[in-house]
Amino acid sequence: MKRVGLFLLPLGLFLFIVVFLLQGLFSDPREIESSLLEQPVPEFRLPDVMDASIEYGPEVFEGELTLLNVWGTWCVTCAIELPFLTELRQQGVRIVGLYYEQNMDPDFGGKSLPQIRADIDRTLSQLGNPYVFNIFDESRDTSMDFGVTGAPETFLIDRQGKVRLHHVGDLNERVWQAKFLPLYQELSQ
Amino acid sequence: MLAELGHFSLVLALLMAILLAIYPMWGAQRGQVLMMQTAKPLTVGLFLFTLFAYLCLTQSFLDNDFSIAYVAHNSNSLLPWYYQITAVWGGHEGSFLLWVLIFAAWAVAVAMFSGGIPQDILARVLAIMGMVGVGFYLYILLASNPFERLLPFYPVDGRDLNPLLQDFGMIIHPPLLYMGYVGFAVVFAFAIAALVAGRLDSTWARWSRPWTLAAWVFLTLGIALGSWWAYKELGWGGWWFWDPVENASFMPWLVGTALLHSLAVTEKRKAFKSWTVLLAIAAFSLSLLGTFLVRSGVLVSVHSFASDPTRGLFILGLLVLVIGASLLLYALRAPQLRSVGRHELLSRETMLIGNNILLCSATLVVLMGTLLPLVHKELGLGSISIGAPFFDEMFVYLIVPFVLLMVMGPLSRWKNQPVAALRNQMLAGLGLSVVAVVLLNMGRDGLSYMAVLGMALSVWIAIATVQEIRQRLSASKQGLAGLTSLTPSHWGMVMGHLGFAAMIMGIAMVTSYSVERDVRMTPGDSIELQGYEFRFLGVEALQGPNYSGHVAKLDVYEDGRKVSHLEAQKRFYTVQRNIMTEAAVDPGFTRDLYVALGEQLNNGDWALRVYVKPYIRWIWGGAALMAIGGLLSMSDKRYRMAKLAKVREHKVSAAGEAA
Amino acid sequence: MIRLLWVMTLLLPLYASAFEEVYGFNNEQQRQLFKELTEELRCPKCQNQNIADSDALVAQDLKRKVYQLVLEGKDKTQVIDYMRVRYGDFVYYQPPINFATLFLWLVPVVFIIGSVGMVVWRRRNAATELDTALIAKAEKLLNNDKTQENNP
């Protein structure tokens, strides 16, 4: 009978693999946990997208529960989530924009700053403006420090300036209810 | 109308599969000839109904019938007709239809070309094909029907075929690969039939071997072609990425290679039976696992089809049934198998065991590397990536002992090999290969250890192969005339091993000595790389049937002499709004010149990627040699059926004893 | 951004060997390091591509950052750690070593040791298990089959 045990080994190995394959079917392999979770936001000094004389740093997150939303006017999905974000703002959620410009490639030049500002004005007046202000990440270096892979992405940052939640893709009613709201309510108390 | 006919035909094929799964097996267990005889006509029916369904779908593509969802998603009226035919397997549903068509074709081949096999065994083999088939056909009808209609609202024109797939390499890559995957179903069916019948003997190995070879040849070609296609079409100049989907095709290949070798032992020496049968089950199981990985979306890959958890669940269920049941049967039956062949520690048997152990651990490396990111994440440990650095390192460790065994194996005799003779041969071979490597590397600066190691291993295999032939000739005492007395299957081994040597050479050279530059150029610029001067002539606009784009023209000079003209394209496919790089390649025996066109920069310059890749053709050439080796082995007389029948007669006693 | 213009004098008069490398380097080691890093770092947004092969915006950003760091004289581990802090272990194609990933190396090694052990153990036991008469019978059968013996 000892020999049978050995011959059962392949079956055991196979069933072990199946368990994980089954679990894998119900999770998205492209969803990657941010390494910033539970960490304070990285250091940065960046200007306001509309007014270069105003500068922001990590202190803008202190004392207030904030959603940091990475977006750009060129990004199609961002345009889809703007109305919902505006709705959130009306409910009293503080949303700060991190403006992530695609065309400002340091190598190639691209859109000029006045053009970008005009684009932002037009987009926000059409689709709603959820932002308290927009931080302008021209070189995308700060985005890299945040581990941003594209737009749109959203971070929930607590009153101590720590990242508590990270979402890649558009923020809609469903995602808000399921992923953000429980933690948001807990933190806002 | 065609779609409905096709659909109905598939239902009939399912019916055939169900009958095939029941009657012949029943007949074989009861010893009723009439029921066993139904196997052949049912198999033919299965094939014909599937073929008809397949043709219906193809005709729908040619008719631009966009009321069929699958056609609308994967074709377009502007698509050239030859791509409309190949677009049939461009998406999930159609490629699975091709899969079952090939499956049915293999079943028919077994029914037709197995005249020498006892009727009850053949009936069992086909019945097992039928059982597996029931699962496939149910899947295609219930979860992935290619004939589904988009009624009443259907699009005026289709969404077009994925531009990546609009290429010659892609036309034949999937069918070849499927031929390999599904071909292992035949080997699997033989193994299960033998387990069920309790007759696992060397005749079983002899029947299985040509089918294994056939599947293995197709898989080898399919993988090589995929690699060549990626090289040409993806514009990165790479030939292997350790992508989960590539790994999924590599695992059955590794196990299939192990199986080929262990079947040789089982056939000739009646040893390793339980091991060989496990490999036969594993080869097909890994093919199925690969199918699951590609089609379920559990892993992130460049190749995966759009995923759908219900489909994934269905295939997983199928996997559990087919693999689980066969491994259970194995666990119950295998312990009763006895191997009778005795052998000493130093013998060809031992070398082949070693070969099998290494090939299987290579499979485990690939399996772990492919699935562990999934396990890691499900355990809540976060996402990790396992790629080239890990696999490359592990394979370097594995290849050294593997080559050592590959050198020793053919030089060793069955049962018992005297130490001194083998040692002398090996020392001579090693000495010669070191000399050869020194000569080959003279005058090259910037030596890479890996390249030197790879070259030495490659040359050593080649020398050992020659030594083995010489040894055989001196044994036959006929001089060179003795060459003709070597069997085709022997030449198959020689070709296979030489092909492997060529492949190692290619891999070592490309990995270590490729050079590349990312450059910006204006027309009139030139760049010098490895003694080649690439002159950028300029970029012109390009207009294709369903795309537009740019083509960059370059002339390549060596020592002031023009050696090549290259045209690298960048295409924009209008319907799918997709940009595709079509690299320009000047192939050569010792080097490829490769140029890919990037984007245009603001000042009018163009970004270009220029590569010189030494010996890259040797990788695919090596694969082709291996495939030729496989074909030679298949052509061996001893697998011909008339002969088989004769062999069987005086084997009956042996078979009874082994069971 | 520092750009290096590579101008070489060339004998051929018609085509000036003037081209600009997208990423130019001071020496061959840096070029090699950059190549290695961009091939071993994974694009976090793409399906399954390294940053050298990907045209995605984030891959280009990472490539540029790697370039900067290499020019600053950072070594391989420093650059990889820089990326890991931001994008996690996912960004590097060599998995970290921990309890779960240990099996990557352990399983193949255990398999090799185990199966070699099995082969030796069974060889030692098999001889006693079978009685000699059966072996003699088997050998006789095998000898009948000798015609094809030397073929693989």
Portion of residues in beta strands of chain C equals under 5%
Main pleated sheet of chain C: 2 strands, antiparallel
Task: Give the full name of the CATH homologous superfamily of chain A.
Answer: Glutaredoxin
Contiguous helical run count of chain C? 5
Level-2 CATH architecture of the largest domain in chain C: Orthogonal Bundle
Largest interface: B-C, 78 and 62 residues
Shape of chain A: elongated
Count the strands of chain C? 2
Radius of gyration over C-alpha positions of chain C, nearest whole angstrom: 29 Å
Highest CATH level, the class of chain A: Alpha Beta
Strand order of the largest sheet of chain A: 5-4-3-6-7
Note the run of SSEs of chain A as H and E.
Answer: HEEEHEHEHEEH
Would you identify the regions of chain C where 5 or more consecutive residues have pLDDT less than 50?
Answer: 1-14, 147-152
Chain oligomer state: heterotrimer
- β content of chain A, as a range? 15-25%
Approximately how much helix is present in the residues of chain A?
A: 25-40%
* Mean pLDDT value of chain A: 87
* Structural category of chain A: alpha/beta
What is the topology?
The complex is a heterotrimer of chains A (189), B (659) and C (152).
Chain A: H1 2-25, E1 46-47, E2 55-56, E3 66-71, H2 76-90, E4 94-100, H3 113-127, E5 134-137, H4 141-145, E6 153-157, E7 163-168, H5 173-188
Chain B: H1 2-30, H2 33-37, H3 39-62, H4 69-74, H5 81-86, H6 92-112, H7 119-142, H8 168-197, H9 202-233, H10 244-269, H11 273-296, H12 309-333, H13 348-378, H14 388-411, H15 419-441, H16 449-476, H17 488-513, E1 515-521, E2 526-529, E3 532-543, E4 547-558, E5 561-573, E6 578-582, E7 584-586, E8 591-600, E9 606-614, H18 617-634, H19 641-649, H20 652-658
Antiparallel strand pairs in B: 1-9, 2-3, 3-4, 4-5, 5-6, 7-8, 8-9
Chain C: E1 6-7, E2 18-21, H1 28-40, H2 57-71, H3 76-87, H4 102-129, H5 132-144
Antiparallel strand pairs in C: 1-2
Helix pairs in contact in C: 1-2
